[in-house]
Amino acid sequence: MQVYLDNSATTKIDKRVLKKMRPYFEDKYGNASSIHFMGQENNIKIARCKKEISKILKGMADNIIFTSSATEANNLIIKGVMRANRGKGNHFLISAIEHPCVLSSGRELLDEGFTFDYISVDERGILDLKDLKKKIKPETVLISVMAVNNEIGTIQPIEEIGKIAKEKGIYFHADAVQAVPYLKINIKKWGVDFLSLSAHKFYGPQGMGLAYVNRDIKIKPIIVGGGQEDGLRAGTYNMAGIVGMTEALKLAYSERSEYVKKVKSLRDYFWKEVAKKIKNIRLNGDLKNRVENNLNIMFEGVEGEAILIDLSVAGICVSTGSACSAQNLKVSSVITAIGIDPRYMNSNVRFTWGRYNNKKEVDYVINKLVKTVERLRKFSVIK
After folding, report:
1. Active site members
2. Which residue range forms the structural domain that includes residue 66?
3. Over the stretch 215-240, which tens digit does the pLDDT of each residue have?
4. Pair 264, 176 in one domain
């Protein structure tokens, strides 16, 4: 049996989404920047897609910029805002458990004379609002905090952070990649100026993302050339991707209640059975304050990579952290930030459920996992 429980890394594209995309590969292939009728038809379609997405996000259509990924969107927002607002200040804040692309963007800006501080989180992975307030400086320009952590599924107090940012006159960015459809995104209510999404996290196409940008705030592009998106992001529009992302987002929220109920049921059943059958394990994060499809479990005395490989041989796909850092087996910054016992820094496995999972698969994974952990613990050197 093949079982895919790595839905936070990427999801299988929905066939309904693929159907909407197909004409833009075969018949409606005109470049949206061209003046002829095929190009202008697609240009009009882009505007319609932005309008449909803005209704879901409770934002403004003109503030949506299509990108190749959320990684690109995060780079654009963090680097673009800081570089364009040097007159306002040179300092920004990011949480200690951000996605690698945010952390890397921050470190890259250090070479340009900018500075930043990490906002600490508690043992559940929830941002410390007192620490946030403490680290704000007169020269702070931007706060960047992910709405939902990609590794442990923790939900952050986005509205409270938004209020603090507005009170201090600081711009606010939320990486909302893992939030769809678990949270009802509301740009106005959240108080965000910038937001990032990635289509392949909610059954849309890979290689398609968006950056929501407050056009009243200066931002410097990182990809220049063609003048698309009012000069903020050059490059030929990915028409099939844009249409696919729009359809996937619409489906995600129109079917939200049923979907969330399903993945929560599978996840809770899995956790109940695993906690009963395997001793000396711990849930990373907080079961209550997390998205419904995520479990990140620490298995004492076993390497997470060993569990992953053993399960993979049995046809089961899981993860030990961010898929974007799979080639780097260093200890996860998220696991470090929440204070896991140093002995078990590499003993963590993430299981994430999705639309196409079922109870039969879960039972299969439980059976294999119990045997895997039992076997690996027999010759483990971790004590």
Report:
1. 324
2. 15-254
3. 999 999 999 998 899 999 999 999 99
4. no
